Each structure stands twice: as C-alpha cells, then as structure tokens.
Amino acid sequence: MSSRVDPVTGVVLAVAVLAVSSSGPLTAFAAAPALAIAFWRNAIAVAALTPFAAARRGEEFRGLVRGEHRAAGWFSVAAGVALAVHFSTWMPSVQLTSVATATALVATQPVWQCAIASLQGKRLPVTTWIGISLAVIGAVIATGADFEVSATALTGDLLALAGGLMAAVYTALGERARVTISTTTYTSVCYSVCGVLLLGVCLVGGVPLIGFDGATWLAILGLVAGAQLLGHSMFSFALRKVSATTVSLMILLEVPGAALIAWIWLGQVPRASALPGLALLMLGVAVVIVAGTRSRDVTPARAASS
C-alpha cells in the first residue's frame, strides 16, 4: 500500500477531514442536550443504513440470528455499548470546554489503544512509549490550562479523554467483529445498539428529544451526513489507495480543522495557554501512529468516530 496520495484520493481525504472536523463545532452550535444529539445522529444513521445493509447483506444478518456469526454478533453489540459511552462522554465535552481542546483530547484514541495492548502483555516499541509520554505531558499541560479557567472546562477535558478511551475500546471490538462479517453488517448492529442505549439513557434521565429549533435539526443532520456517514465512507475509500498510517495521520487534521471552524463560525479563539499542550499532544499521537506501523502486535489506527 502506497503512502503517496494521487489527486483524486487527495480530494477525497480533504473532504473527509472537513466532514469530521465539523463534528465538534456542530455539536457546540446545536441548541440541544448532547445526549439527544448523540441519539439522533445514530438513529438517523441506522435508518439510512439498515435498508441498504439488509438488501446487500441479508445472509449475514440471518447468520447472526442462526448463530453462524455469533461471536461477531456479540463483538458488534459490545462495540455498540462502547460507542454509546464514547458519544455520552465526547459530545457533552464539546459543550463544556472549547472545541479545540475537546477534539484534541478525544484524538488520544491511538494512545489508549497502545495502553490497552500493553496491559494485555504486548510489547510496545520504545518509540511508542516516547509518543505516549509526549501525549500525556501535552494533555496535562492542556487540561492544566483549563483548570485555571473553570471547573466546567476541566470537566469537559476529562470527558473528552474518557471519550478517547472508549473510542479505542470501540475500535478494538469492531476489529474483532469484522473478522467474519462485513463492515456494513457490523455498522448496522453497532449503531442500532448504540442508538437504543442512548434512547434509554435519555428517557430515564428526562432528556428532551424533540422541540428543537430548525437550526439545531440542520446541525444534527449535518452531523449524520458529515462525520457519521461521509467522513467514515471517504476514509474507508482512501484506505484502498494509501496506507493506514497516512489515513490515521490525515485524521489528526480534524483537530486544527475543528479549531478553525469553531474560530470562524462560533468565535471560539483557542486559549494561548493551552496551545503548547495541544501541539505536544498531537505530536505524541502522531509518533504513536507512525511507531505502530513497525510493530506486528499493535497498529494503532485512529478511527473517525467524532
């Protein structure tokens, strides 16, 4: 797989980065509870994907029921649970802290994947540990800057870090599920489970699911069309043309992309005191991704789950 990017693939990657970069700003803009936004983006995605999946992968769905793909089915369900927790932490974080900080902290997913692999007894390259150390130091500096601002911003930072952890768990479970079933079938099951869980949390917690203004509904549709469908699809297409490392590093552009959109659209100027930490964090994550290509035990791919 080549690391060189042809013009068509370059355009595809640029559109994908723009799509996922819109996730944080759209969530911050929407005048609705974060959990309600998370539910609707999954529910609408399921409604859009399931008819296509049932028509194209009907035999796989029947295999899940008959037990032929029982293990993959359970991994898909578990991934849906992890995705629900990811959305329940990441999306509220965007409304509590700045878009730039929340997006950077949730991008620590590859670092969490390596930490999980280490706990499982897998040996990580020295370069990976250097990257992890840089990311941790950067996160401490960035969150420390927010601690000086307000407890609310610090809470948002911690939720974003938790979102990055759960994105790593979601990705690891998804990789196990897709060993025997297609991405389409896996996504349908995973998103459905995620949506049902988020609906239950909203109903139990009394979170309103309707009554939003037109701009908020447009923002939710933008999340579905952009980050949930277009971004994922474009990155999947790009993986046929370039290496996973190239795609993972391109996804990191979501951080400055989201910060730029939030600055222009929402007037969120990144705090100067947090910028050194965010830059160091991104450098650390990039080092982890590149180092992962040299290890057979763990290759930390950054999923566009924002």
TrEMBL record:
Q: Report keywords, A-Z.
A: Membrane, Transmembrane, Transmembrane helix
- Pfam families in alphabetical order: EamA
Q: Is Transmembrane a UniProt keyword of this protein?
A: yes
Q: Does the keyword Manganese apply?
A: no
For this protein, the parts annotated as crossing the membrane are 71-90, 96-119, 126-145, 151-173, 185-210, 216-235, 247-266, 272-292
Family note: Belongs to the EamA transporter family.
Task: Return the protein name.
Answer: DMT family transporter
